Amino acid sequence: MDVVCVGDCGVDHYLPSHRRLSGGITANFARHARKEFPSGDKIRIVSCVGNDDAAPFILSSLKDSGIGCHISTLPGSTPVQYIEIEPNGERRFVRYDEGVLRDFSFGREERCIITKSDLLVAPVYLQIVDLFDELMGIETDGRTAIDFADFLQHPDFSLLERHIDNIDIAFFGLSPGDEKTIDRIAAVAARYGKLFVVTLGASGSRAFAGNRRFDCSAVPVDKVVDTTGAGDAFAAGFLASYCHGPDIPAAMQNGAKLASTVVANIGSWS
Q: Are strands 80-85 and 91-97 parallel, antiparallel or unpaired?
C-alpha cells in the first residue's frame, strides 16, 4: 500500500517556555503511520518548508524515519503553530503562521505521487483551504481520508459537502458538548454513505458509517500532559487498522490506544 500524506510540516512552538518541537498535522500522522502500518507499506509526505533556520530542524527530524519525503524548500518561513498547555494538559492553539504553505502549489511530480496513491491523507483548516481545493481537484486511484482539523472552531459544512464525492473517510476533533455539530456530521454521513469519525478527547470517539453508529471509550492514562497531536495519532492508528481489515470498532480501539501514548508526553510524537 502506498500511503501519501499531503499538507503541513512545521514547528510546534510552546509558550511561555519557547521550546520548539517538530510538528505539523501531516508530519505527525506520517510518523505514527510509519510505525503502525505494515513495514511493506510505503509512507510518503508531500509538503514544503521555508528557507529559514527552522527548515533543517524539521528535515533532520524526518531523516532515517523510513518516510519518503517529497518536501519542497520555498523562499519564506516554515509553518509555526504557537501552543499553550493548560493545567489539565489540554493544548490551546494561540496563533498559527502558515508561512510558505500560503503559496505552495502541486507540481507535476507531486500530482503524479498523489494520483497513484492507494491512500491519500490530508488535513484541511482555515489557512490552507485554497491548497485543499487544489488537492481535491487531483484524481486519485485509491481512497482519500481527510482531517477537518478546525471543525471545532469553524464547522464548515459547505466545504465538506463541496468535496464529498472525493472523500471516503473524514475525521473531526470535537468536544462532547458539540452535539448539534455531531448530529449534522452523522446526517451527512448517512446521506452520502461515508465513514466519518469524531474524536471527543477523554470522552472517546464516535464513528458513523452511513446509518450505522459506533462508540469507543478513550484509553485511560495516569496523567494527561499534552494533548497536542492526539488526533493525528488516532487517525494513524485507525487507518492502519481499517485499511488492512475494515473492522471499525477495532480501528477505533487502535486509534484510541495510540492517542493515549501521545497525551502522556510533551509533544505530538515520541
A: antiparallel
DSSP code at position 102: G
The helix/strand/coil state of 168 is coil
Q: What are phi and psi of 94, to 5 degrees?
A: -85, -50
203-to-52, 217, 236 alpha-carbon distances in Å: 40, 6, 19
Mean pLDDT of 19-31: 96
Cα-based distances in Å from 95 to 82, 84, 174, 189: 5, 10, 19, 31
Burial class, 42, CB count within 10 angstroms (exposed 0-12 / middle 13-18 / buried 19+): middle
Domain boundaries, the chain: 2-263
d(CA 239, CA 254): 9
Fold of the domain spanning 2-263: UDP-N-acetylmuramoyl-L-alanine:D-glutamate ligase (3.40.1190)
User: Per residue in 124-148, pLDDT tens?
Assistant: 999 999 999 999 999 998 999 999 9
**Residue among 122, 182, 177 nearest 151 (CA):** 182
Grid cell for residue 9: 510540516
Sequence-distant (6+) residues with CB within 8 A of 137 are none
